[in-house]
Amino acid sequence: MSREAQFERFVMRRFEKGLRTGRILPPLLFVMIIIDFGFAAVMWLVDRKDYQSYGEALWFATQTVTTVGYGDVAPTTAVGRFFASVMMLTGFAFLSVITGIVASALVARTGGRPHAPDELDGLERRIAELEDD
Question: How is the chain split among helix, strand and coil, in percent rounded to 5?
Fold first, then answer.
């Protein structure tokens, strides 16, 4: 088995375990915070014209990595825009991967099968009874 496949299996086992135990949120928040502070440092170092303080760079990084993007702080230099683009793609990719992992784990948890028809019939009967009351 290739190293990539081993790593993928390791990560998937950790995420699935985290979903089962409810302990997935802290590691995800930790990774997002590390990404946020790292990109803020890069933006502050490469674009001091637009980010005169680390706080401004951190505000921009937080908006960008979380894909909110208020637009109140934005880079104007070519280097700053390049790193901002990388930051946007990283934030989007990170959120997409997390969404996919959570969705995959939820589908795996249910076995990928929809509700049985008899379960749906029972629910429909119960709703009809409630409406009649």
Answer: 75, 0, 25
Contact 64, 91 (CB under 8 A): yes
Of 20, 62, 19, 22, the residue nearest 38 (C-alpha): 62
Q: 78-110 and 54-65 are packed helices; what angle lies between their axes, rounded to 10 degrees?
A: 40
pLDDT in tens, the chain (133 residues): 677 777 777 777 766 666 665 566 677 778 888 988 998 999 999 988 888 999 999 998 888 887 787 878 888 888 888 888 888 888 888 778 778 777 776 776 666 666 566 667 778 888 888 888 7
Q: What DSSP element (H or E) covers 3?
A: helix 3-21
